[in-house]
Amino acid sequence: MRQHLPVLLLSLSVPVIALLPLPDFWIAQLNYIGLYALVSLGLVLLTGVGGLTSFGQAAFVGIGAYTTAWLTLNLGLSPWITLFIGLGLTAVSALVVGLITLRMSGHYLPLATIAWGLSLYYLMGNLDALGKYDGLLGLKSLSVGDIDIGQGRLFFVLCWALLIAGAVALINLLDSRPGRAIRSLKGGTQMAEAMGISTF
Questions:
Q1: Which of 6, 101, 132, 184 could anchor a disulfide with 192, C-beta 3.0 to 4.6 Å?
Q2: 99-103 CB contacts, 8 Å cutoff, 24+ apart
Q3: Which run of H or of E encompasses 188?
Q4: Do the Cβ atoms of 163 and 34 come closer than 8 Å?
Q5: Does the structure show a pLDDT above 80 at 117?
Q6: What is the pLDDT of residues 29-84, one digit of tens each?
């Protein structure tokens, strides 16, 4: 119960904060904090729990974001559909990169993730189809019917609800058999393999 207490307190505080008469600037900053924290959950699992150093998280965020934005602007698809397509492409990209990179160990692994991150950054920044370093402009906010949830307090609730759901999923994962296998990686891949855990 104690390990779930921070998530419980956070869950109770979200609707309270959303109802407080805070300036829009503060709400916007809390939205950014929620988004970055959501991205950091994967880094917590990989580096904090598994002991594997990665500097390529931003590249996967970029793949998902650019996929969603490009499909929405150029094909006219609903952002709710393109969000899941972006997540799917990001998962496939992570699998391909992982198949190549996770065979490395020592300082080669973090260096490889730096290389992946930089290469994708410069690739996306030089493609005309992706707007180069200006990015893709003209995207509409997320909406449900006539309700705009892509900004302000409604986006705050959506963002932090996703963060709480992600944190709960991560806690449950760590208590499962795959989670214990990930924990064992922190002691070294050789020790994990000696205990009968596949490290790849």
A1: 184
A2: 102/52, 102/200, 103/200
A3: none
A4: yes
A5: yes
A6: 888 988 898 888 888 888 888 777 888 888 899 999 999 999 999 898 888 899 99
Whole-angstrom Cα distance, residue 142 to residue 181? 38
Backbone CA torsion sign across 60, 61, 67, 70: negative
Measure the CA–CA gap between 98 and 200, rounded to whole angstroms: 9
pLDDT of residue 135: 84
Question: How many whole angstroms separate alpha carbon 113 and alpha carbon 97?
Answer: 9
The candidate with the shortest Cα–Cα distance to 56, out of 68, 42, 66, 67, is 42
By C-alpha distance, which of 82, 29, 15, 50 is closest to 170?
Answer: 50
What contacts 25, CB < 8 A, 6 or more positions away?
A: none
- How far is Cα 130 from Cα 139, in angstroms, rounded to an integer? 13
Taking the alpha carbons at both ends of the chain, their separation in whole angstroms is 32
* Helical H segments across the chain, by residue range: 5-19, 24-43, 57-75, 79-101, 108-125, 152-174, 177-184, 189-194
Amino acid, single-letter form, for residue 5: L
Helix (H, G, I), strand (E, B) or coil at 1: coil
